[in-house]
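Tokens for chain A. Residues wanted.
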């Protein structure tokens, strides 16, 4: 991570991880061998793991100083809420679309949303002295 952080901006790491995640989700239903699923899972873990530290850094950079606590609270709420809602949502979608359809839909949404990461810019903090 220090090597990545010193050479690449947060937006590049996050955007690249989103594109890699999208590609891996699209590929997952097409693979049927256990070793290939394991390889895709390892790559997905690397993509998602590379982005974790960058999220906190980016959140700190793009949020006005006086709203850092709110941003961290919203992040925690989103993570905890998704732990409850995502299994229910994906399970229901899996019944309607099939497992492959869920992977392809999630891959498409993550891929289509990756442009937001590439457009992130740090804001200029205004002093409130």
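Reply:
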């Amino acid at each position: 991570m220090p090597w990545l952080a010193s050479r690449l901006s947060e937006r590049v790491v996050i955007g690249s991880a989103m594109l890699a995640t999208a590609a891996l989700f699209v590929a997952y239903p097409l693979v049927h061998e256990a070793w290939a699923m394991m390889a895709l899972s390892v790559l997905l873990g690397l993509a998602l793991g590379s982005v974790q530290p960058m999220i906190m850094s980016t959140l700190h950079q793009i949020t006005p100083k006086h709203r850092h606590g709110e941003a961290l609270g919203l992040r925690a709420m989103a993570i905890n809420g998704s732990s409850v809602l995502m299994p229910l949502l994906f399970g229901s979608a899996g019944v309607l679309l099939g497992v492959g359809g869920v992977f392809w839909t999630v891959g498409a949404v993550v891929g289509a949303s990756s442009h937001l990461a590439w457009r992130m810019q740090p804001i200029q903090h205004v002093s409130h002295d």
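The mean pLDDT is 85. Residues 68-97 form the longest helix (30 residues).
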